[in-house]
Design brief:
By secondary structure, the chain is an alpha/beta fold. It has 14 helices and 19 strands.
């Protein structure tokens, strides 16, 4: 029986904002691995907002980026937890700590069950009703009274022993992320290969800040698309755009021209400026919506104004951090996203093919109900002797062209077969199923039959009540008519 606590930087434990307990706990766990990152960078990477960190599952991918994929996520939906869940929690904590990996737990602490210090440690100063919180578990004691060492970013004294039984009661219905036991931990080959999509196309993102960039050298290095700034607001024309445009098109590469949206400028004026400076109505546009761009209503209005002028907007650059900042609005109906995520500070740097983080990186995760089509994975890619933004598309250049222009989409033979089958089902005529049909001759398509059924049902909803009303009225009038007939007969 022993007590074991991982070394970590105790000076960084207190969280820097009231809602950064998740990033702070992640930072503490990484410090236990000798990895030093800023709390701000963790918040940006995890996607924490003033509403906190939505789910412990957002933390695991960040830890895995530094820890060779060691972390898994477990939830504890039962409150109170089952004995099996409690023992699995203990096994995960002990195995993780033994392997040198801290644990991040998401807890719910009502006033009746605020964490209490044990083994002579001071109880943390929880207050203010039910506390939804993240903590880092950095040690354990497997003695008769099992306990865990907590690095608590939110409450003094920021470190204490807690009874394991209490911890197990605090986690439900949330969860935790821990390095699994050795039997569960994924094994790595001696010379692991980075998983790559079947096809991967690289591109660059440039503006007047890259003036003088040799685009022929960019193309020679294998970059297939260029995203270049055209304009900003209703006042700025990028002076490098005409050269970037002409050289990219001359090289036969894919070109996207973007406009930086400004909420403080007239929508129609921005649309006019972008279209005029774009110069070629066949070039696909992108809207860059971030700092000073306002809400998504501004984005939608400008998108409509530009498309009304005959320019197709094929992409939306609304970075995840800004989407969080404006309240995580629904982006449905907008073009596919270009996202950005540069990895841990100071960010990825080097040749694009060497620093591309893989197609399971968080930068590919959709948000706002819209998929990510292009991922800007570094702002320090080495291209043609310059350090610039580099992007990736999971597919071939032709597939990217089709995506941007709304052209034909490449399909597998199975997808083509299914499409033909659906078309046949929708267009083929079918016989009536009526018991009173005269023959089995086709009468209409499925859509036609469905519409006819809808029409007959609607007609019946009106005609039947009217007919019943007439019958009721006739029945009501019947006694008087009978009496009249009797008098006439007499």
């Amino acid at each position: 029986m022993a007590e074991k606590v991982l070394p970590y930087d105790r000076g960084i434990v207190p969280q820097e904002t009231y809602y950064w307990c998740g990033p702070a706990s992640t930072q503490v766990v990484l410090s236990g691995r000798g990895i030093h990152v800023s709390e701000q960078d963790m918040a940006n990477t995890i996607g924490t907002t003033e509403n906190g960190t939505d789910y412990v599952g957002l933390i695991a991918p960040v830890l895995n980026a530094f820890c060779d994929g060691a972390y898994i996520v477990r939830t504890m939906p039962n409150d109170p937890p089952t004995p099996a869940q409690v023992e699995l929690l203990w096994s995960d904590i002990a195995a993780s700590i033994d392997a040198g990996y801290g644990v991040v737990a998401n807890i719910v602490a009502p006033p009746s069950n605020y964490p209490r210090g044990v083994k002579g440690s001071q109880s943390p100063a929880y207050a203010g009703g039910v506390v939804y919180h993240y903590i880092a578990l950095m040690g354990y004691d497997d003695g008769p009274e099992r306990a865990v060492w907590v690095a608590d970013s939110g409450f003094r004294p920021f470190g204490y022993w807690m009874a394991f039984e209490q911890l197990a009661s605090l986690i439900p219905p949330k969860g935790y992320t821990a390095a699994p036991s050795p039997a569960d931990r994924p094994t790595k080959p001696e010379h692991p290969a980075e998983p790559m999509p079947a096809a991967l196309t690289f591109g660059v993102d440039i503006s007047n800040h890259q003036g003088g960039l040799d685009l022929s050298a960019v193309a020679a290095e294998g970059f297939e698309f260029v995203i270049a700034k055209v304009s900003e607001g209703d006042y700025f024309r990028d002076p490098e755009w005409p050269r970037f445009r002409d050289e990219t098109l001359a090289a036969g590469k894919i070109l996207v021209g973007y406009h930086y949206v400004r909420a403080d400028c007239d929508i129609e004026g921005q649309a006019e400026l972008f279209v005029e400076h774009l110069g070629d109505p066949g070039i696909v546009g992108m809207l860059d919506h971030e700092a000073n761009s306002g809400g998504v209503d501004v984005l939608r209005a400008l998108h409509e104004a530009i498309e009304r002028r005959g320019i197709h907007i094929g992409l939306t650059y609304l970075p995840r951090w800004y989407w969080d900042q404006i309240g995580r609005p629904d982006l449905s109906g907008l073009p596919p996203l270009m996202s950005s995520h540069y990895g841990p500070q100071p960010g990825r740097a080097g040749y694009a093919s060497a620093i591309y983080p893989g197609h399971d990186d968080i930068g590919w995760a959709p948000y706002g109900g819209v998929p990510v089509a292009i991922f800007q994975f570094s702002e320090r890619g080495l291209v043609a002797g310059r350090s610039i933004d580099v992007d990736a598309f999971q597919g071939t250049p032709d597939q990217l062209r089709n995506l941007l222009t709304g052209g034909d989409i490449d399909m597998t033979p199975e997808q083509e077969r299914m499409l033909v089958e659906v078309h046949r089902e929708l267009t083929q005529q079918y016989p009536s199923r009526s018991a009173h049909r005269l023959n089995d001759d086709p009468v209409d398509t499925l859509a036609g039959i469905a519409l006819n059924v809808d029409g007959r049902v609607h007609e019946a909803s009106i005609d039947v009540p009217a007919a019943l009303g007439r019958i009721e009225q006739a029945l009501a009038d019947l006694p008087a008519k009978i009496a009249t007939a009797i008098r006439v007969g007499q």
